[in-house]
Amino acid sequence: MAGYKCGLVSVSFRKHEPEQIMSAAKDSGLNFIEWGSDVHAPKDDIEKLYEIAGLQKRYGITCCSYGTYFHIGATPVEELEGYINAAGILGTEILRLWCGEKDSQEYDDRERERLFCECIKAAEIAKSSGVKLCMECHNGTFTNTKDSALELMQAVNSNSFRMYWQPNQYRTEEENLEYASALADYTEHIHVFNWIGNRRLALKDGIDIWKKYLINFNGEKTLLLEFMPDNNILSLPSEAEALRKITEV
């Protein structure tokens, strides 16, 4: 499965400093990282953002995305500019956002229309800024199902407004495969983990199903490890090895 790039999400290690994370990533053969705005790379801490950018050069790490906790429809759209500026300092044109604050089935028609208008407005800001806003495929947001996510992508209809994909640990493999197939053309990055319900399992035990998931995604994608099965940074080398095995034909 040529073309896949391997990295990790910094929020996997919230208790560790950025340099510790980059050192561990380099030692594990991972070259890409998504920085989280909540702990490691706050959008308003400009000094820290530039410090991280400098460390990236030292360790040979590329920031592939900026993981924000911006909720479209709840966070004022005026705050988007600050996140876009922070992403630029880190060296990425991709920002991860959340769409709304509740599951899609909880929206009435008026709320859905209001949310879509906010998404279109955000997409226009992204286009004028030369960045892409990617919605996380997540419970508790409008993109909790493949149908609602597809509805959103088609309604906004912008190359500046895209998706992440990740399996839903509370759904079946078949349901997750259907979601992957439906959203593949809109997907930029993929969050990788091996969970069943609330149980976090080693990725090496999920290689076969992940190979099936990736069949749906054509073209170059970045696969980002999200959380360790035991929350231990010392588990990163083995998880990274499993991640690379997923991409092998």
Written overview of the protein:
With 249 residues, this protein is of the alpha/beta class. 39% of the residues lie in helices and 20% in strands. The protein is built from eight helices and ten strands. The protein has helices at 18-27, 46-59, 80-90, 109-129, 146-156, 173-183, 207-214, 236-246, and strands spanning 5-9, 32-36, 62-72, 94-99, 132-135, 161-165, 187-192, 195-196, 199-200, 222-225. The termini are close together.
Which features does this protein show?
249 residues; alpha/beta; 8-stranded parallel beta barrel; two-stranded antiparallel sheet; 39% helix
Blueprint (SSEs and pairs):
Blueprint: E1 5-9, H1 18-27, E2 32-36, H2 46-59, E3 62-72, H3 80-90, E4 94-99, H4 109-129, E5 132-135, H5 146-156, E6 161-165, H6 173-183, E7 187-192, E8 195-196, E9 199-200, H7 207-214, E10 222-225, H8 236-246
Parallel strand pairs: 1-2, 1-10, 2-3, 3-4, 4-5, 5-6, 6-7, 7-10
Antiparallel strand pairs: 8-9
Helix pairs in contact: 1-2, 5-6, 6-7, 7-8
Main sheet: strand order = 1-2-3-4-5-6-7-10
**Uncertain segments:** none
**Average residue pLDDT:** 96
- Helical content, roughly? 25-40%
How many helical stretches? 8
Order of helices and strands: EHEHEHEHEHEHEEEHEH
